[in-house]
Amino acid sequence: MKIKILQQDLLPVLQAVSRSVGVRSTLPVLANILIRTENNRLKLSATNLEVGIIKTVNTEVYEEGELTVPAKTFLDIIASLTGETLEIESKSEQLKISTQKFNATLNCIPASEFPVIPISSDKPILVNSTVLLNTLPLITFSAASDDGRPVLTGILTEIKKDSLEFVATDGFRLAHKHTKINPDTTKVDLKEKNNLRVLIPRRTFEEVARLISEDSSGEENIEISTSENQNQMVFKIGDTQLSSRLIEGQFPVWEKIVPQKFENRTIIDRVELLKACKLAAVFSRSEANIIKISAFEKKIVLSSEAKEVGGQETQLEADTEGSEISIAFNSKYLIDILSVLACLQVSIEFSGNLSPALVKPIGEEGLEYVIMPIRLS
Fold it and tell me: 10-14, 131-135, 159-163: which range is least confident on average?
């Protein structure tokens, strides 16, 4: 392989691909990036066996070839050669990188040892990239981040002919978003019995959101499809392809968790409530982040205390209906919700002192959050 490419063209592609390198793997080749020439383009691939990514970039190809290069070293070198024209050449199991004043040789691993990254087999479903970019940050934070219960690290994703639905929960909170989509954007006939319903890892969707925000191809839609053996999800974002394993297991019956009735409904300014929650959290850090919310007529009171620090109480004006209620929550869960929303007001429906509460942004349809309460001793 022998190519010539501008450093500023290669660097952003290399940075994006490097995020999916298997740095903790026992397989040395997973710490490498596969580089391959194809039709006057350079294709870069990386995988950690859970997520695989392939990106392409225009280049001048003088000799075809392929090789896997150490990701971290390669990235560090390319990032340091600002504004240079790079000549990259492979010989045997080594890669030579050179500019007018710089030469380096990297020891590599043959491309034959690199795992195959799945590609899509079905006709794709098209989903507007803006819809995904705006929706995913509202949902992903509610999925579990540790692997204690793998099924909870996934986001239940259901694509129907005219709607897109996401559900995430870590067992203590739940996020649900239902979005209408244009049925004309599907390339396949999604009949009711053939709805796509899969469990996609949280980390995959976080990477999808990053790739969408970085994409400069101008493509309006993202192609979503399954791999040939149906155990991988494949996303095509402009010139980028990302494949991800699907999580196996039974996702909780989330519909039963969402409260259907409430004893008190409070509508309150989102920013003021967020400030009050953050103040309350200062005093609750040593007490498992527990804050107490009491709802009265036309106001709510947030209180928290810690034996060594002291206590605080904040009163906020609110529109309330129903009976007075007092309930305790983990402040982090409320702060996470209020921080990702952009609405002016939120509605909180309390269904009892020891029952889940339902949080909804005012003015945004199809989005709701459930927070489990904490029993005070």
Answer: 159-163
Same domain (yes/no): 196, 265: no
Confidence check: pLDDT of 90 > 50: yes
Is there a contact between 298 and 312 (Cβ–Cβ < 8 Å)? no
Examine the fold and report which residue of 224, 254, 284 is the final residue of a domain before the chain moves on.
Answer: 254
DSSP state of 108: -
Which amino acid, residue 268? I
Domain C-terminal end among 113, 138, 172: 113
| Rounded mean pLDDT, 65-69 | 96
Percent of the chain at pLDDT exceeding 90? 79
Contact 99, 87 (CB under 8 A): yes
The pLDDT score that the predictor gives to residue 191 is: 43
pLDDT at residue 126, as a whole number: 87
**Dist CA 27 CA 40 (whole Å):** 30
What is the separation of C-alpha 299 from the centre of its chain, rounded to a whole number of angstroms? 36
Angle, nearest 10°, between helix axes 202-214 and 129-139?
140
- The confidence score (pLDDT) of residue 314 equals 97
Query: Is residue 193 located within the same domain as residue 275?
Result: no
Mean pLDDT of all residues in the chain? 92
Would you list the DSSP string of 131-185? HHHHHHHHHGGGS-SSSSSGGGGEEEEEE-SSEEEEEEE-SSEEEEEEEE--GGG
Same domain, 246 and 313: no
Tokens representing 2 are 């022998």
- Nearest C-alpha neighbor of 165 from the set 135, 187, 145, 185: 135
Domain that holds residue 79: 2-113
Query: In the prediction, which pLDDT does 182 show?
Result: 67
Residues forming beta bridges with residue 35, ordered by sequence position: 44, 67
**CATH code for the domain in which residue 204 is found:** 3.10.150.10
Q: What is the DSSP letter of 120?
A: B
